[in-house]
Amino acid sequence: MSRDISVDASFLESQRAKAEERRRRFEAAAREPPPPLPKRSMAWPGGKIVTPNKVEAIASFLERKAGSLDEAKERVLLGELGRAAAEAGAGAAAAASAGAAAASGAAASSSRALAGLTLALSAGGDESGVGQAELAKSIRAAGGVVSNTVHKRVDLLVASARAVKRNTQAVRKARGKFRTPIAAP
Fold this sequence. Notes:
Helices cover 52% and strands 8% of the residues. It is α/β, with parallel strands linked by helices. Among the domains are: 54-89; 118-183, Rossmann fold (3-Layer(aba) Sandwich), CATH 3.40.50. It has a four-stranded parallel beta sheet with strand order 2-1-3-4, with helices on both faces. Helix 2 (54-64) packs antiparallel against helix 3 (71-88) and helix 2 (54-64) packs across helix 4. The termini are far apart. This is BRCT domain-containing protein. InterPro entries: BRCT_dom, BRCT_dom_sf.
């Protein structure tokens, strides 16, 4: 069973008129040249900075930013500088650049026990009486960075016996997902 479709002639005429107007409108735009390509701009006109000497790059960055970095960022960079110098074998140039960074006023922060380490906390409410705020304060005073959560960049989880017994989320993540060492406060 087929049905015939009836179309009104006035409808067809209006559609043809709209098509003709669209053709005329876009015909003028087709003759214009395309817009210019976006300008590629970089933060530094020399392009991406690539160096095989990580120690030298970090040391020169610390020299340039001496005094303008906050203490936590400076500690992290100094820790990274120490690790990179150890990986590179701590050659004469590495020792000299590390010495220059230390001479810029950062020697005190590099001698701290937890410099460059990131610690997460799951402590407090224990019979030891040490709260999480006090622990965080002492970790920061020793040069460490305190993280609110356990993630792949956390070096150590400080967990109370109560947190381990209750198997808190931080303890589960440290044990299972990230294999992070756990220490008591």
